[in-house]
Amino acid sequence: MSDLLAARAQMAMSLGFHILFAIVGMAMPLLMIVAEAIWLRRGDPVALELAKRWSKGTAILFAVGAVSGTALSFELGLLWPEFMRHAGPVIGMPFSLEGFAFFLEAIFLGIWLYGWDRISPRAHWLAGAGVWICGMASGAFVVCANAWMNTPAGFRFEGGQFVDIDPFAALWNPAAPSQVLHMLIAALEAVGFAVAGIHAWALLRQPASRLHRMAFGIALAVGGVAALIQPISGHQSAVHVAEVQPIKLAAMEAHFHTHRGVPLRVGGWPDEATGEVAYSLDLPKLLSLMAFNDPDAEVRGLLDFPREDWPPVTVTHLAFQIMVGAGSALIALTLLAAWLAWRRRRLPLDPWLLRLCVLAAPLGVIAVEAGWTVTEVGRQPWVIRGVMRTADAVTPMPGLWLPFAVFTVLYAALGVVAVALLRRHVFASTDFASTEAFASADEAGHG
After folding, report:
1. Residues near 8 by Cβ (< 8 Å), separated by ≥ 6?
2. Rounded to whole angstroms, how far apart are CA atoms 304 and 117?
3. How would you classify residue 279: left for phi > 0, otherwise alpha for psi between -120 and 50, otherwise beta?
4. Tens of pLDDT along 166-203?
5. pLDDT tens string 345-358
6. What are the DSSP calls for 152-184, one per residue?
């Protein structure tokens, strides 16, 4: 394994692992405060128990995510010292703001966890809202830094140095608005459907459980709304990529030859040597229409660019297809559930629908992982597009397979710890099936 490949593999593993906990911190607090709001409005003890149950899982995943995020920050300096030396002064501000938002999130989470009978109900709910807002802000600042790598701004590059640095222009670079919006919605969609799938599984075992019914309804609503609006943000992202990163768009669609009226490719296996794509379904002129709002617009193909600037086409294309496919399946499931709810005027709890939700539970997470693969792999061979190549940013330290092995063991251990804690503190006790379990509304409440 080459040092460059080892460094890239380690970052891919670290980012892929950490993003699981990041999206929980961005979305799970919303579910918590919705459940608490129901309790505050109706005095329903089931909603109170649900809010507390969800808070346990959130706290566990927050703690594990803090460890994986800290390790990830060390990896940036360890593996990519040239990138950090040059880029640090430019994008140091979004990283600093992310840290500030993270600490505020931790403070609000502590207040929320331990303030049930110590502060007023309204102040407690506001603390939960603070957890959610800071979690979303933390994720947004990190995405701004990543967007800068795709559309670098806020500096001039002279003599191998960054000069005339404008950190605000770097923070709110051209790719930031579309990437931030897309990521925040993706987090809500992924976590919403994952939680809905967990409670759907519980409902198949305990159909009479009010707690799981309420949890399923809240999570499905959050995930479903996010799924329906995600194509809008996805379209905005695609339009931006078409304008600023045409080579990435060409790789996403495995589009080799420049021409007008380009079809949208569904599926397919690209052959980079011949420039052909097998086993694809082509929807006439749809790519031109979606990218440039003109069905006859010209879309540049990969063969218009130097071969050394091509990203890994097969990986980028397949990851994009997986992301779109998973998102489309969740949209279809949302529309089906919404139609059943509209017809029956109640939450649909048919066993076959619950089984579909269980099967769909990982699709949002898969879409997030695939989307980040498109973002990162599609930018290669650049770590800062047009400014610094990935090969020039990697550390000259030999033997990178050793830290790769160490961090792999670390993340595996963290994963085992997270699953064990969730099983013990969240999933083990599923006998909250009936309202009778919450006969005392004051139990462990606000006093």
Report:
1. 390
2. 65
3. left
4. 999 999 999 999 999 999 999 999 999 999 999 999 99
5. 999 999 999 999 99
6. --S-EEETTEEES--HHHHHT-TTHHHHHHHHH
Instruction: Give the model confidence (pLDDT) of 268-315 as tens digits.
Output: 999 998 989 999 899 999 999 988 888 999 999 999 999 999 999 999
Structure tokens belonging to residue 392: 């020039």
Backbone angles phi, psi at 160, to 5 degrees: 75, 15
What pLDDT is recorded for position 298?
Answer: 93
**The length of the chain, given as a count of residues:** 447
CA distance 411 to 266: 34
How far the first Cα of the chain sits from its last, in Å, is 60
Report whether 377 contacts 315 (CB < 8 A).
yes
pLDDT band at 433 (very low <50, low <70, confident <90, very high): very low
Beta bridge partners of 282: 265
Report how far residue 94's alpha carbon sits from residue 81's, in angstroms, rounded to the nearest whole number: 18
Return the number of other C-beta atoms located less than 10 Å from residue 292's C-beta: 16
In angstroms, the Cα distances linking 409 to 2, 13, 403 are 20, 11, 10
Rounded Cα distance between 49 and 215, Å, is: 11
* Of 129, 174, 122, residue with least CA distance to 152: 174
Q: Which amino acid is at 67?
A: V
Q: Residue 5's pLDDT is what?
A: 82
Token pair 């990435």 is at which residue?
248
Query: Cβ-count burial of 320 within 10 angstroms (0-12 exposed, 13-18 middle, 19+ buried)?
Result: buried
Q: Are 139 and 26 in contact (CB under 8 A)?
A: yes
Prior bond to 94 cis, omega within 30? no
262 DSSP 8-state letter: P
CA angle 305, 298, 276 (to 5 degrees): 55
The letter for the amino acid at 219 is A
According to DSSP, the residues that pair with 99 across neighbouring strands are: none
Contact 141, 98 (CB under 8 A): yes
- Joined tokens for residue 374: 């498109």
pLDDT of residue 427: 67
DSSP 423: I
pTM of the full predicted structure?
Answer: 0.91
Q: Give the pLDDT band (50/70/90) at residue 438.
A: very low
Q: Look up residue 447 and give its two tokens.
A: 């006093």
342, 345, 347, 353 alpha-carbon torsion, rounded to 10°: -50
SS3 content of the chain, % helix, strand, coil (to 5): 70, 5, 20
